[in-house]
Design a protein that fits this description.
The protein has four helices and three strands, in the order H-H-H-E-E-H-E. It is of the alpha+beta class. Strand 1 and strand 2 form a beta hairpin.
């Protein structure tokens, strides 16, 4: 009977030791920040635009309606304002029709104003890093 090949003998452990599989050297914080700078810049700009529109709306919309706005997102020139329910969304649409001229004066790059429904407890109301939640 022929001898077994050495790879099939049970004398060695089943899992072989890895051969010098090392992770790359750790990067400095400065390198990580410069590599991710475009992404971070976009996120901070988007947060600044969101704060701008929230403060603008708080100065131009009455309190009962202002309290029902769950989120404000600007994406590619379109401003999307989310209300807590469909009823508040309809009221918000009528209020924004009267303010649309002032909104376009505040930001000439604004192309559209949309009103959507997004309850406060949902994931999109907490703020997504990239754009708006899908339209419903």
């Amino acid at each position: 009977m022929p001898n077994k090949m050495s790879r099939n003998k049970r004398t060695r452990p089943i899992l072989r030791a890895r051969t010098l599989l090392r992770s790359p050297a750790p990067d400095s914080v400065k390198d990580v920040l410069t590599r991710n700078l475009p992404l971070m810049k976009r996120v901070t700009e988007q947060a600044a635009r969101q704060r701008f529109w929230q403060t603008w709306l708080s100065g131009h919309i009455a309190e009962p309606l202002r309290a029902r706005i769950s989120a404000v997102v600007e994406h590619e020139g379109a401003l999307t304002i989310f209300a807590e329910s469909a009823a508040w969304s309809a009221r918000l649409r009528y209020a924004l029709l009267e303010l649309e001229r002032e909104m376009r004066a505040a930001d000439p790059a604004l192309t559209a104003v949309k009103v959507r429904v997004l309850p406060r407890g949902s994931a999109g109301a907490r703020g997504a890093p990239e754009g708006a939640p899908p339209d419903r």
